[in-house]
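Problem 12. The chain below contains 166 residues. Write out its predicted structure in token notation.
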Amino acid sequence: MEIALLLCALVAGLLLIPFGLPGLWLMVGAALLYSYAAPNRLGIVTILGLTVLALVAEVLEFVLAGRYARKFGGSKRAGWGAIVGGIVGAVVGVPLPVVGSMIGAFVGAFAGAFVAELTIGTNRKAATRVATGALIGRIVSVAMKVAVGLVLIVWVAGALLLSGAR
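Solution.
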């Protein structure tokens, strides 16, 4: 029964990620709760590994928007604008149920890079190209987080199989 609940929580966490919700942290929390409910099934290495992967994915989520803005010809300011805009957009979008934080993060990354590029005198066409790069970076970051979520599920499943959980 505990394993079924754990797997449901892991899948629910994976489904939350594209919506900009803390799905990875739900997955880590579910694994942690399971490790207390069923001792000796998920070890400390698994819990710490899941936590480190989730933390790295969270940092990369915002860094990728900035990197892609720079890759598309943007300045450092545009990179920071994409990062800050993505964070602000995600927070501002929260009141819109389910998809608000995701849409807000996408719009925020685009707007942040766009405005930052305009403030240094870049023309609108070039600023739009840079902002598009930031948006692509946000999309790539969501795909990366889903991939990390899949890795977490495989890691937990592997740990359970190795522990002989039934």
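Discussion. The chain has one domain: 2-163. Students who got a different answer should revisit the alignment rule from Section 12.3.
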